[in-house]
Design brief:
single chain, about 550 residues, Immunoglobulin-like, 8-stranded parallel beta sheet, 5-stranded antiparallel beta sheet, 18 strands, about 15% strand, globular, binds calcium ion
Length: about 550
């Protein structure tokens, strides 16, 4: 069953939901979330009003997170089968929910058959699928294999062998004193540029001694693919096409800026253009969403070939404004500056992929120190802006999560404390626990003032309003620093939205044509006299025209 182009557009401006299957819902009692479990919870996602789900990687892999893919065309046995996947996609489509997959194609697993072949022999047919150098060059450039805790010393080259194969990232992360920063583009660029020079200058002897040194930007167990090799490009295009044939609606493209080394904008974009063309043969309206973790000016060019890129800069601004009772007008100025960059750089119609947090970041509620009012404010900002807002699973119930390790930002969804069936138990949570102030979903659903019901109301208001789905944003000026006020406009209709980023009640002037309150965080926020509203601290009000 396929959705009409109009339905697809509504979904792409509705609300997306990022899911870590492993932590969601377990259908067979092994404590690990799976595709059938997720399918059993589609009622919940439908009720919440979700219009698109993004599945974090679901393919066979060694790690719990599965960003080290061993087989792009299969499902991890813990998660289910291809048939389970087909069922899931069908049921999503029946509920007008799109499905996109995480495509992790910058690198494969060390154990992917391509890499196993490639490392076995320099003359192997798969050798060119990866990026190789010799240790002489590695030494000369001051690059070191992964025998140092200093990742920033460009530990990007690794020697094939047990040390890389059995590398314990978790242990390494705990030991490491300096934060891992993979966005040191300039440093990587300058060093890698050198490696591209003088390819024949090294002695044959050292080449023979050190032939098995490969490039891996994230983890020695995840060797980077070589996109100068056309066969790699063709493989990945075919993989994308295969999943489209199975019914998926698009892809979230992991690490989209790392494909060409050194990070090379023009080559990356031309690759993504080729990828889109190949996929369009199967589904002309395929949705492509890039993860390009960078400043807006540097990610905007990707919108020449992708529909969306995650708006990391806005996410930081939204959280900082909520956390620090920020300046509402400055927030809107920043929003518009980013939107203008996107429009200038893109020839396509852009869907701004906005969000508050994702699986690589500390959870929103932890950042906000369990302040539910602030979490409601952050959600109200997110869900009333143009684009496609993404909710990270559990954000809507205020799940907690932080370092020490990424898995604690991906803890089991807290369904209930009385009904344990389906609850995932693969990880003992450190943060999302009742004893830390978390309220399970079932209790929240029966409380009209709960966080999840706040999300639900706002999502339904968004999805039922063409103005909130498709309308442009027009800031409304105010002299009060902590007020963030804007109108959304579409065709002849408009909606008025005011957020109070501060803790004190503020009086908001409502233009004459707006009278019908569609949404209010607090029932105390009511129109008083002469078109004015007393807006409580950390509250939002949405008003429609008469
Ligand atoms: Ca299971």
């Amino acid at each position: 069953m396929s959705l009409t182009p109009e339905q697809v557009q509504r979904c792409l401006h509705g609300v997306g939901y990022e899911i870590f299957v492993q932590s969601f819902f377990d259908s067979n009692g092994d404590g690990i979330g799976d595709l059938n479990g997720l399918r059993q919870k589609l009622d919940y996602l439908s009720d919440l009003g979700i219009t698109l789900i993004w599945l974090m990687p679901i393919h066979p892999a060694k790690t719990y997170h599965k960003y080290d893919v061993e087989d792009y065309l299969n499902i991890h046995p813990d998660y289910g089968t291809l048939d389970d996947f087909r069922h899931l996609v069908n049921e999503c489509h029946q509920r007008d929910i799109l499905v996109i997959l995480d495509l992790v194609a910058n690198h494969t697993s060390y154990d992917h058959p391509w890499f196993r072949q490639a490392q076995s022999d320099p003359t192997n047919a798969y050798r060119d699928y990866y990026i190789w150098t010799d240790s002489e060059r590695v030494k000369r450039l001051g690059l070191r294999a992964f025998d140092t805790p200093d990742v920033n010393a460009a530990g990007l080259w690794h020697k094939v062998g047990p040390e890389s194969e059995h590398f314990d990232w978790e242990e390494f992360e705990k030991r490491s004193k300096t934060p891992v920063d993979l966005d040191q583009d300039d440093r990587i660029t300058s060093k890698l540029s050198l490696t591209h020079e003088d390819s024949s200058a090294n002695s044959t002897q050292s080449n023979r001694l050190y032939t098995n040194t490969y490039y891996a930007v994230f983890d020695p167990r995840m060797p980077d693919l070589n996109y100068d090799c056309e066969r790699v490009q063709d493989e990945i295009c075919r993989i994308g096409q295969t999943w489209l044939e199975l019914g998926v609606d698009g892809f979230r493209l992991d690490a989209a800026k790392y494909f060409y080394k050194p990070p090379h904008l023009k080559s990356n974009i031309s690759w993504w253009t080729k990828f889109r063309q190949a996929l369009s043969q199967i589904n002309p309206s395929v949705y492509l969403l890039g993860e390009v973790w960078d400043l807006s000016s540097r990610i905007a060019p990707y919108l020449r070939s992708l529909d969306s890129v995650f708006n990391f800069e806005l996410a930081d601004l939204l959280i900082s404004c909520v956390l620090n009772e920020g300046n509402g007008s400055s927030l809107l100025n920043a929003y518009q500056r980013i939107a203008n960059i996107y429009t200038r750089e893109s020839s396509r119609s852009v869907i701004d992929a906005i969000f508050l947090s994702n699986h690589d970041q500390n959870r929103l509620m932890s950042v906000l120190s369990n302040n539910v009012s602030k979490a409601k404010l952050a959600a109200a900002l997110l869900l009333t802006l143009p684009g496609l807002p993404f909710v990270y699973y559990g954000e809507e119930i205020g799940m907690l999560g932080m370092k020490p390790h990424d898995k604690y930002r991906r803890e089991p969804f807290l369904w209930s404390t009385t009904q344990t069936q389906g609850q995932t138990t693969w990880l003992e949570p450190l943060y999302t626990k009742v004893s830390n102030g978390c309220t399970p979903l079932d209790q929240q659903l029966s409380d009209p003032n709960s966080l999840v019901n706040h999300y639900k109301k706002l999502i339904h208001i968004r999805c039922q309003s063409d103005v909130l789905l498709f309308g442009s944003l027009k800031p409304v000026s105010t002299r009060i620093r902590c007020l963030c006020i804007y109108e959304r406009e579409y065709n002849t209709k408009s909606v008025f939205i005011a957020h109070n980023l501060g803790h004190r009640t503020q009086r908001v002037m409502i233009p004459d044509n707006y009278r019908q309150i569609t949404f209010s965080t607090n029932s105390e926020s009511q129109i008083v006299t002469n078109g004015q509203v007393n807006l409580q601290g950390f509250s939002t009000i949405i008003i429609q025209t008469k």
